[in-house]
Design a protein that fits this description.
The protein is 59% helix and 3% strand. By secondary structure, it is mostly helical. It has a two-stranded antiparallel sheet.
Length: 177
């Protein structure tokens, strides 16, 4: 199987149902940004922490489901889709990681160890993916659980960044106003 088909040379691409849309459509922007987030996370793994690696691996798999979800304008009940339990899983991770951390008293600068700073970067890409998903939802029907997942995931990535920085002995820096 060839990696190139030439079908996208005209600026259009296929969705999961084989309908054709512009590569600049809100749907392609949404799942393309999720793909970017997944690639950013791939540059972080493996970390020095097995629990973080396991969670990032699961998140990368969840993000493939989000992409499939967004690439499908007319899903059937058995098609891949983000579900409320995916959101709950991220919430459980956040709660567990929060137990390791000092409570936040101010904003923190997105910095720290190499992995901690990269996780902060991933968080910002996740927020952009969420904005793209919200824009898509304003134009077309999509799975609301996928938008909620991205929202919760950005909080999760922030929390994981803080934990990795704490474990790496990197102090949090607050902005100066």
């Amino acid at each position: 199987m060839s990696i190139y088909t030439g079908r996208g040379d005209d600026g259009e691409t296929d969705l999961r149902d084989m309908s054709r849309v512009s590569k600049a459509s809100a749907r392609i922007e949404a799942y393309g940004t999720v793909d970017e987030l997944n690639a950013v996370l791939g540059t972080i793994r493996p970390t020095d922490y097995d629990d973080v690696n396991d969670h990032l691996s699961a998140i990368q798999n969840h993000l493939h489901i989000v992409q499939a979800d967004f690439a499908n304008p007319d899903p059937d009940d058995d098609d891949p889709a983000i579900r409320p339990d995916h959101v709950e899983t991220v919430e459980d991770w956040i709660d567990a990681y929060d137990e390791e951390l000092e409570p936040l008293t101010s904003f923190v600068l997105p910095t720290g160890s190499e992995d901690g700073a990269a996780l902060h970067h991933a968080r910002t890409v996740c927020r952009r993916a969420e904005r793209r998903a919200v824009a898509l939802a304003g134009e077309e029907q999509i799975n609301e659980d996928a938008v909620q997942y991205l929202n919760r995931l950005s909080d999760g990535l922030f929390t994981i960044a803080r934990v990795v920085n704490a474990r790496d002995g990197e102090p949090e820096e607050s902005p100066e106003y």
